[in-house]
Amino acid sequence: VLIVVSMLSVPSVFFRPKDRVEESDAAREKFFVPESDHLTLLNVYLRAKQYRFDSKWCTDHFIHSKGIRKAREVHAQLLDLMTQQKLHPRSCSGSWDVVRKAICSAYFDNSSKIKGIGNYINMLSGIPSSLHPSSALFGLGYTPDYVCYHELISTSKEYMSCVTAVEGEWLAELGPMFFSVKESFESTLKRRQTERLDKAAMKREMDEKDDRSKKVSDLKRLKLVEARE
Known about the structure:
The protein has about 230 residues and is an alpha+beta fold. It has helices at about 1-10, 20-30, 35-50, 55-60, 65-85, 95-105, 170-175, 185-229; strands at about 110-115, 120, 130, 145-155, 160-165. The longest helix is centred in the last third of the chain and has 44 residues, at about 185-229.
């Protein structure tokens, strides 16, 4: 999360030369993490770190070397602040859902619910917005039901900048005073089906128990009759 904050603290590290638009877009897409622009920034930083923030590597991948080195400096400063506050940073160890949930906890007031393909509406303010074409989520093949975004960019319409797909349950958990997640029609049907199956199983169990009790009672009655004879 510290790396994500560091990357958000500097201008976009990607550059897009007018004469190499397709090439730069293709290079950028290789860093995409489909469900999150925030995780895409994390991925870029980690890849650059592998190459020791080499200027040539950055240029070859259409990344501003000065920008990402500035992010490295911000990251070091944040680590120092944590040390001063006696906080111990811990790695998510590749479990990036932990990072997505942390982003959700910080940006739940910037949460939006799907309204149409690529179109969303803020769940608190009601402001409509869209996925930006540069987002990793744009053209994903499916559209997440809920997202959190860093900020809105206003042009001919409102675009969400730096977007992460989140789970509705996270919003209900982290902001219960604002959100409640209603069951979908499909999940309601599954729940009702499960309840019916449970009731049927319970009825069978009760019937079998009654049958066993009846057989025991009949057997006792038979033995009693035989004893009298």
